[in-house]
Design goal:
The chain has two domains: 51 residues; 208 residues, MetI-like fold, CATH 1.10.3720. The chain has 14 helices and no strands. The protein starts with a helix and ends in a 6-residue tail after the last helix. The chain is mainly alpha-helical. Helix 3 crosses helix 14, helix 4 runs parallel beside helix 7 and helix 8 runs antiparallel to helix 11.
Length: 285
């Protein structure tokens, strides 16, 4: 009996950590899922239903708020601006970061280590820290209230992390591969463009995905640099919309649903590239 009791006690002790893990995961999931469900339910209800029965599914769903948002021209302006900023900033990050990573990884020159250390200082200074100097510089060069300024700032502050990710991958490429390419008549630029870039597609996809997420979710830069209503991005427009229609939470919820759809669609396609790209750092063969 004592042996059976000891075994049961040991099994119980082994199960306690697993049970605690599940409890923590379930609680974290509830903290994330419940607000999203409330927003989805609220966007498909009337204003009165949202206040009286916020946790009950909308049966039948009320599509009036969604239709009202879709008919607002300002919503489409916001969506267009976010798409333009995200596409341009992502392209800039991928192009510039891949070239700078190649230089730091494959080309030897005096002071490369020191220069790379200075380059990575950008990891310690996010845009929130430097937002006042950014505003002053943008105003002095005449780009205030211009999407180009938002694109340049968001591109610049993502270069350090993107360069580090790509540099680590480029350094893992065997030097024998570059020597063989040189023997076959390929110069440095040809090796970078024809050989290294195709090999780095997983890491490039990861950098592009992270740039899209960071750019799409940005609020501060657009808030500081943009005044015109027609130049608002979706994140900035969401804040302004909440301020204007804050009394009608069902309408605000419908706006949030529509604003989140592009991000959800992108994540469905990009999650595999993010994971595979960030773990890609060696060549098998």
């Amino acid at each position: 009996m004592s042996d059976n009791g000891a075994r049961k006690s040991k099994k119980l002790k082994n199960k306690i950590p697993i049970i605690l893990k599940y409890i923590i995961l379930i609680m974290a999931l509830l903290f994330i899922i419940v607000p999203i469900i409330i927003i989805i339910f609220g966007g498909l209800k009337t204003r009165g239903e949202f206040y009286t029965i916020p946790y009950v599914p909308p049966i039948p769903p009320r599509w009036g708020n969604i239709v009202r948002i879709v008919k607002m021209p300002i919503f489409w302006y916001m969506l267009r601006n976010s798409m333009v900023v995200t596409t341009a900033a992502t392209a800039g990050v991928v192009i510039i970061a891949s070239m700078s990573a190649f230089v730091f990884a494959r080309i030897n020159f005096k002071g490369k280590g020191v220069m790379f250390q200075f380059f990575t200082l950008g990891l310690m200074f996010p845009a929130t820290v430097a937002i006042l100097p950014i505003f002053l510089i943008v105003r002095q060069i005449g780009l205030q209230n211009n999407l180009i300024a938002v694109i340049l700032v968001l591109t610049t502050f993502q270069l350090s992390m993107s360069t580090v990710i790509l540099r680590n991958f480029f350094m893992e490429v065997p030097s024998e591969l570059q020597d063989a390419a040189m023997i076959d008549g390929c110069n440095t630029i040809g090796f970078f463009w024809r050989i290294l870039i195709p090999l780095a597609k997983p890491s490039l996809a990861a950098v592009a995905s992270l740039a899209v997420v960071n750019t799409w979710n940005d609020l501060l830069v657009a808030l500081v640099l943009i005044d015109s209503e027609k130049l608002w991005t979706l994140q900035l427009g969401t804040m302004q919309f909440q301020g204007q229609y804050g009394q009608d939470l069902s309408l605000v919820s419908a706006f949030l649903i529509l604003a989140a759809i592009p991000a959800v669609i992108f994540y469905m396609f990009a999650q595999r590239h993010i994971v595979s790209g960030l773990t890609a750092g060696s060549i098998k063969g």
